[in-house]
Amino acid sequence: MKQPHLLIHRYKWYEIIGIYAGILVFLTFVLAPFVEGFLVSLKPLSQLFSSPYRFIPENGSFEAYRTMWVSVPGFARYIFNSFFISTIVTAVVLVLVVPASYAFARFEFKGAGLLLGAFLAVNMFSGAVLLIPLFRLMRTLGLLNTYFAIMVPGVAFLIPSAIWLLRTYMMRIPRELDEAAFVDGASHFYTLRRVILPIAMPGIMVVAITTFIGSYAQQFIFALTFNSKSEFAPLPVGLFAYFGRQEVVWNELMAASFVGIAPAMIVIFFLQRYLVSGLTAGAVKQ
Amino acid sequence: MSVQRNAVIFAWILLLPAVLYVAVIVAYPLVDTFILSFTDASLKKTTNWVGWVNYSKIFNATFAEVIIRTFIWTFFSVSIKMIIGVFGATMLNSAVPGRALFRVLTMPPWIVPMAIGIFMWGWMYNGQFGMISGMLQRFGLVDAPVAFLAQGSTAFWATIITDVWIGVPLVTLYMLAAMQAIPQDLYEAAWTDGAGRFYRFRRITLPLIVPSMITMSMLSLIATFNSFDIIWILTRGGPSGETTTMIIDTYKTAIGSNKYGEGAARAVLICIFLSIFCVCYFRVTSRLTSGDKR
Predict the structure, then answer these.
(1) Membrane spanning segments where (chain B) (predicted)?
(2) Is residue B103 domain-resident?
């Protein structure tokens, strides 16, 4: 937080124009689909299917946001499913990962490096590669076409990066703290619960957020393959079924997408500070 | 002595749940994939050991094409992500007003469920009524509507661009963090010596972010190689297989036509490629870290 020297940061006028032009081009690429998607959701269908293309809607309205609830009957259910699945997945990941990260951060035991490496290697395989045996496993366990079919594999693939992030965070907590507790006669478990957990809370929050987002993003393939019941379908798959139809009602699809992502967007705005540090914490300082 | 031993036992108790979970849901399926790849497993009740048949079956001209296509697709996707990401990070790293806001605005493609971002692109690529074709026509760059997802050559690039779009936020934020970790005094020293902005970028920023660039390229290479949702939603590997990458091909074989054995053989090949990437990665990073003496 030291005050940077101001002179070095003083830009010439053409440099400022260059930087803002660069940012404009960059953000246009990043945000164009959202702008277009939003405008599409406002356009009446007749205008969408007319040439020549018009970017700005004429007599735009929020009609699609009303009609979509009728056209996609399960819509509310899909949103609920997405949230429900991601919440449970995040909770399970945290329960598994918090103790494991503490073990990796604090204890020296034989094979620690190897085991950590093995966990990280899991990151290499996406669910897509292991889909066939996972399908058989889910069938054997009788989990096909249930919420569990989407949650159980989801948890496994989110564990490695969560361990990596949280371990890095916990390693920064001064060792003296646990040693002091230990000298005072506290058990290992008590130290973890009463000393480490409260201090690691911000780090656990970051892991919870990134896991939640990750779970929301990865639901698609598991739900598509392991679940064929629409009452358990999360939002992406529910909309995909709708998207696959012959006559796609684009304005409603976009409206539904926006309603579906609104909660995630609100989360970003409140938690973006944590997110940036969370994404990069495990990475830069190695 | 016994305190030490207690600590080790406690560590293992902490680790056990996570280890068991990953063993059952990832390690076991991995082993199962290898075993399945030597069988004719399908929807039938009986499964026979068939040896190398699945492997010899997949080595044909079409599959060679799929492999080459996967590598080209991955190569361009990762390179473009890195170029745009480093460019974006450099811009966001400038001390101009509003950069905190710009940083937040970078995140949506990463935060939104992937499938939903892809739906938006699906409409933008629409031939008759989509935005991209419409804009190109308006500016007179093309005469007739272009249905990007209906022709192999454009569909190939369309899927790459969507993949880049989804990956760029993470690369940008990661590279930005790498740039911000560079000590300010380096820039100040160079500045006192009269080094210009471009010179400082080329001689300080670029060399110091190389390790992070390698890490990010590697992570992004693995993610891109595994990329499924984008192609499946946009083209399902079509038209006539021209966007079929190895993952899509595996999915079509295994889940689409229920040929688990043949699908598993394809999955094994993917695992082998991924392992090679990882080995290369560790080689490169260990050389880098042994290079600078600490």
Answers:
(1) 7-31, 71-92, 104-125, 155-177, 208-234, 264-284
(2) yes
Q: Å from A86 to nearest chain B CA?
A: 11
Residues 6+ apart with CB under 8 A from A174: none
Classify residue B180: in a domain, yes or no: yes
**Is any Cβ of chain A less than 8 angstroms from the Cβ of B38?**
no
Distance from CA of B61 to the nearest CA of A (A): 22
Query: Taking CB atoms and an 8 Å cutoff, what residues of chain B touch A250?
Result: 123
Note the Cα B160 to chain centre separation in Å.
11
Q: How many domains is chain B built from?
A: 1
Residues A53 and A98 in one domain: no
ipTM above 0.95, yes or no: no
Range of the domain at A18: 7-61
User: What are residue B39's DSSP bridge partners?
Assistant: B49
Nearest CA to CA, how far is A11 from chain B (Å)?
9
A248 found inside a domain: yes
Q: Could you tell me if residue B228 is inside a domain?
A: yes
- Is A75 within 8 Å of A238 (Cβ atoms)? yes
Residue A26 pLDDT exceeds 80: yes
Alpha helices in chain A (DSSP H): 13-42, 45-48, 63-71, 75-106, 112-122, 131-140, 147-171, 175-183, 188-191, 197-226, 235-243, 250-284
Q: Which residue of B lies nearest to A158 if distances are taken between CA atoms?
A: B22
Give residue B116's pLDDT. 86
> A20: which chain B residues are within 8 Å (Cβ-Cβ)?
96
Burial class (CB in 10 A: 0-12, 13-18, 19+), A46: exposed
**Partner-chain contact A30 B169, CB within 8 Å:** yes
pLDDT in tens, B41-86: 777 777 778 778 788 888 777 888 899 999 999 999 999 999 999 9
**B229–chain A Cβ distance below 8 A for any pair:** yes
B55 falls within a domain: no
CATH code at B183?
Answer: 1.10.3720.10
Domain range spanning residue B235? 60-291
